[in-house]
UniProtKB/TrEMBL annotation:
SUPFAM superfamilies: P-loop containing nucleoside triphosphate hydrolases, Rad51 N-terminal domain-like. This is DEAD/DEAH box helicase. InterPro entries: DNA_repair_Rad51/TF_NusA_a-hlx (IPR010995), Helicase_ATP-bd (IPR014001), Helicase_C-like (IPR001650), P-loop_NTPase (IPR027417), SNF2-like_sf (IPR038718), SNF2/RAD54-like_C (IPR049730), SNF2_N (IPR000330). SMART domains: DEXDc, HELICc.
Length: 726
């Protein structure tokens, strides 16, 4: 055989070896996580069994066991039974070999059940050697990211294709081998060489060898220190927990993750391909299913409970359509989340994004029409744009879709006009719809008139099961408790808002006066036009709709007063608004307020000054935390959030930090990120540091002076002299 064939086989062999090496590197990284997880998981199982009384063994054996003497012997829990073992059990009067074996078998079955259901919680406040080892092992996979996962999938597919081809092509290594292979063997070998060429040429065009090599490097590169791993975990805990669930094979119940859809629809959705090559984050299993649902069913409502990542599911659907060749997409949302949408798309995808908002929105619209990408606009601004041509927009996404439930409203009519011209439409709302059939019908009618008619006729479905079945073609909802197996978890969201004209005027006055504290609270100075206050009300409303309690933190008593007045006047069904809990409230009264908050059946809001409530109180009843403005010291926020997210919390905690784009908030966030963050947050952590935030943070007076000077310069108010900070 000629050099050409041998070279082709050599290229294929090198690519095959690179693919196998990457798969092996990934397997080692996964096994490292499993090895680190096992002792923590085993300890959690033991702790769970220590709380299970011996009497529960009767449940496993249909009441056939006699356990009275076992309990009298001092073995009161299932854990104690397993530790005792069969020999000690046989020493108990009335317990023979057969009974001892039955008791042990029943205890092991309960142990296995606990092993499948127990949740491992990684406590960032109390890093121990075992949890540190787990976080460091997870950090390798988290840092490698979705590109490495895709490369591993490619490597697996390559290995399956090239392995048999290389085996068939072995005779081309020399003339003697070819002669001994016989005519049929030579034919198969040459065909295999052609196959290898096709695979390697395809890989060369796709840059596969480079991506495999990079993924191997990423998987072999561990964290620089355990401190770095812990810091990254705190920033991206949801991603770490997602990896943990995937690696440990502890996926949520399939039916729950698929929203209890009928089998035929669920099967169709599972069969929908999802190309996430332009997505920069890894999707949880239920999130990938949500994106597939939107793609397979084309015109749908994604109604997941808050905190499950509806935005990333929408972005995943958009990136898939972009990879298929669609060029234009439109996202419509309240003004309060427009900046968030813009930043999320930029950070989590390779798509270009164009905000259509403010005085220049018509020019921006024309630019988007020419360049493509994702346009993000508000309900009111959408009314001013001409509707799209057929198939011009790959997908229309409408966030907070319950805003358009009234078909007579102008903003609803604008959405109806656009939805009528778009083949794919994704409505998103965290508000449960089962008990709001009239409102839900209005939304469904924009997507599928046939389903809408079935909801309103004389044969309309009765009960939640009938409702879910009737709306399954267009509606998917999952709840946190059903799909987040690692509860409790902590999820941080920075809510970036664009200041209203009124906010901006108040902010300029504060900057001109050099008043740092007034700059920080300027977004609440004129409540009737406050962008932050609008968003805060939306978060509280959605939490109330889901029966969740909310704690609102601010550094400023005046801000909490504004928030209380706004919530009392504007949020329907949000439950009582308690507080403000401030430094003026005696400590004993503070705990009474917290107890009253916890005792409320259903949603409630607790207002708290962050310094007063950040130490010493346990606010475990709260599932949602809102921080009204960034704090000057990271430890202040950290301690405040820890009041809600701590041992004893049985739900995940969602933290929303309200930030104004372009001013003091943005400068504070950047400065705090640029501090020696790892040192402040971890290296100096001690009992004294935890109790005294000032022990680990640099001077906030210097920060205030710098920010005032920079903002005065940015707004053209600087005279070149050092700022006098109030």
């Amino acid at each position: 055989m000629g050099r050409s064939e041998r070279d082709a086989v050599a290229r294929g062999a090198r690519l095959h070896e690179a693919a196998r090496s990457l798969v092996a590197d990934h397997d080692r990284a996964v096994e490292a996580v499993r090895a680190a997880l096992k002792p923590i998981h085993d300890a959690a199982v033991e702790q769970a069994l220590a709380a299970v009384p011996v009497a529960r063994l009767q449940d496993v054996t249909s009441g056939r066991l006699r356990l009275g003497n076992v309990e009298k012997s001092g073995l009161r829990t299932v854990r104690e039974v397993l530790e005792a073992g069969p020999y000690r059990l046989r020493q108990i009067p009335g317990v023979g070999q057969r009974t001892a074996d039955q008791i042990i078998a029943a205890a092991r079955r309960l142990s296995e059940a606990a092993g499948e259901t127990v949740a491992v919680h990684i406590d960032v406040d109390r890093p121990e050697p075992q949890t540190t080892a787990l976080v460091m092992a997870l950090h390798v996979l988290a840092e490698a990211g979705p590109d490495a996962r895709r490369a591993v999938e490619t490597a697996g597919a390559l290995s399956k294709r090239l392995g048999p081809l290389l085996a068939e092509a072995k005779p081309v290594a020399g003339r003697l081998r070819m002669l001994l292979a016989g005519r049929a063997g030579r034919t198969r070998a040459l065909e295999a060489v052609d196959g290898i060429r096709a695979v390697t040429d395809e890989a060369a065009r796709a840059g596969t060898a480079e991506s495999l090599a990079q993924a191997s490097v990423d998987l072999l590169r561990g964290p620089s220190t355990d401190v770095a791993a812990w810091a990254d975990f705190e920033l991206r805990s949801a991603e770490y927990y997602g990896l943990l669930a995937e690696v440990s094979r502890r996926a949520p119940d399939t039916a729950a993750a698929e929203g209890f859809l009928p089998d035929d629809i669920a099967e169709r959705v599972r069969g929908q391909h999802l190309d996430d090559s332009r997505c920069r984050v890894s999707l949880r299993g239920y999130q990938a299913f949500g994106a597939r649902f939107a793609l397979a069913q084309r015109r749908v409502i994604l109604g997941d409970e808050m905190g499950l990542g509806k935005t990333i599911q929408a972005i995943a659907a958009l990136t898939h359509l972009s990879a298929e060749g669609h060029s234009h997409f439109m996202v419509v949302c309240p003004a309060s989340v427009l900046v968030n949408w813009t930043r999320e798309i930029e950070a989590r995808s390779a798509l270009c994004v164009t905000p259509l908002h403010g005085p220049g929105r018509q020019d921006a619209f024309a630019d988007w029409k020419g360049r493509g990408g994702v346009a993000v606009t508000t309900f009111d601004a959408l009314r001013g744009f001409p509707g799209p041509g057929r198939e011009e927009v790959g997908m229309l996404v409408v966030d907070e879709a319950h805003w358009v439930k009234n078909p007579k409203a102008l903003r609803s009519q604008a959405v109806i006009r656009w939805a009528g011209q778009c083949e794919r439409v994704l409505f998103m709302t965290g508000t449960p719809m089962e008990n709001r059939v009239a409102e839900f019908r209005s939304l469904v009618r924009m997507l599928d008139s046939g389903v809408a008619e079935r909801l309103g006729g004389p044969d309309r479905p009765a009960g939640s099961v009938g409702f879910r079945k009737a709306v399954a073609p267009v509606y998917l909802r999952r709840n946190q408790a059903d799909v987040l197996t690692e509860l409790p978890s902590l999820q941080h969201t920075d809510e970036w808002e664009e200041l209203s004209a009124s906010d901006e005027a108040a902010y300029r006055e504060a900057v001109r006066a050099g008043n740092f504290m007034a700059m920080r609270r300027a977004a609440y100075a004129r409540p009737e036009k406050s962008a932050k206050l609008v968003r805060l009300g939306e978060i509280v409303q959605e939490a109330a709709e889901n029966g969740l309690k909310v704690v609102v933190f601010s550094n400023f008593g005046a801000v909490l007063g504004v928030v209380k007045a706004a919530l009392d006047a504007g949020v329907r069904g949000g439950g009582p608004v308690l507080g403000p809990l401030s430094g003026r409230v005696p400590p004993a009264r503070r705990q009474l307020l917290v107890d009253e908050f916890a005792a409320v059946s259903g949603p409630a809001v607790l207002l708290a000054q962050i310094q007063a409530a950040g130490v010493g109180l346990n606010i475990q009843a709260a599932s949602v935390v809102i921080i009204c403005e960034p704090q000057v010291k990271p430890t202040i926020e950290h301690q405040a959030v820890a009041r809600a997210h701590r041992m004893g919390q049985v739900r995940s905690v969602r933290v929303h930090r309200l930030l104004a784009a372009g001013g003091v908030d943005e400068r504070m966030v950047k400065m705090l990120e640029n501090k020696a963050r790892l040192f402040d947050a971890y290296a100096r952590r001690s009992a004294v540091a935890e109790a005294t935030p000032d022990a680990v943070d640099v001077s906030d007076a210097e920060m205030a002076r710098r920010i005032v000077e920079e903002e005065q310069a940015r707004l053209g108010m600087s005279d070149g002299q050092p700022a006098e900070v109030q």
